[in-house]
Amino acid sequence: MSPVLAPAGAAPTRRPRLDPPPAVRLLHDVGRAVDLVAGDVTLARYVYVPDDVQLESPRPYLHPVRTRGGDVVTAFRPHDHVWHKGIAWSLPVVGDHNFWGGPTYVHGEGYVQLENDGSMDHQRMTALVSGPEGAHLEHVLAWHTQAGEHVVDEVRTLGAHVPADRDDAWVLRFTTTMTNVSDADLTIGSPTTRGRENAGYGGLFWRGPRSFTGGTVHAPGFSGGEEVRGTRAPWMGFTGRHDDVDRASTVVVVDDPGNPGHAPQWFARTEWFGCLNPAPFFSQEVPFGPGATLRFSYAVVVADGAVDTAGAEALAGLGSSVLAAAAPGDGRAADGPPAASA
Predict the structure, then answer these.
(1) Whose CB among 135, 179, 230, 245 lies 3.0–4.6 Å from 293's, allowing a Cys bridge?
(2) How many independent structural domains does the chain possess?
């Protein structure tokens, strides 16, 4: 049989075993998780098929998340709220359903454990690529109610930008596009829209380590405590100290100005525990009727060291630049490679 030859003029072939190892790479634990690695540090593990019980609303999460220096800036299943999982897209009020985990706030009764804890379930991976300063992951999810009804389809992209010109910070870009595939109204809200004052959490939620309790919240022109909870801002940050090591870290979350609505209200805590959450549904519901599609995008900047207000502003600027560099609907990290199917 004659050998199959490349046609004349075809692009030259490659021998990837001879290529230098990429500075940023993705390690795929197929069917479970993806690790983002830069140098000798695993910056984040994205668990896209969790093994959580139904009460915790099983959904993908990032944990542990580390700084470039290797310090962990997330908590997993803390005893006070076992449904808190590092960094996760978490929604307590989606129509009658809870995609946050645990009990549901019922006005006049408080928090009640209902049979309404849904799940966000991975269906297929559509992109998984990495390059010198960035990486990109995209996958498709189907959301199911606790009763098993398929109500939402989601395309989720995670991009990572790991600057080569600095070794103290990196940026996670998170984008979700959700479509209501049910015949029901799935208007998205929060405990505040259901009657609980100043408890408008829901959306991209970061839970810090236990040692971050009592840390510092940053916002434009502000560094202090959780008195800023419920205010509107284009970004907020948090500086906390670590146990075991004499170091601090800072996390800054930046809202994409193209997200639905105005600048989000923020759910931020420091007194009970450290957390940040740009909440587009804090005090006003967002309609999500049958056939409707919603898209939200954020940048999370993870940095070594403590910062003041100006330093937090500079980190927010880094996050904003990553959001601006990605075209609408494109989940690629800035300076990252183009998406490819995997």
Answers:
(1) 179
(2) 1
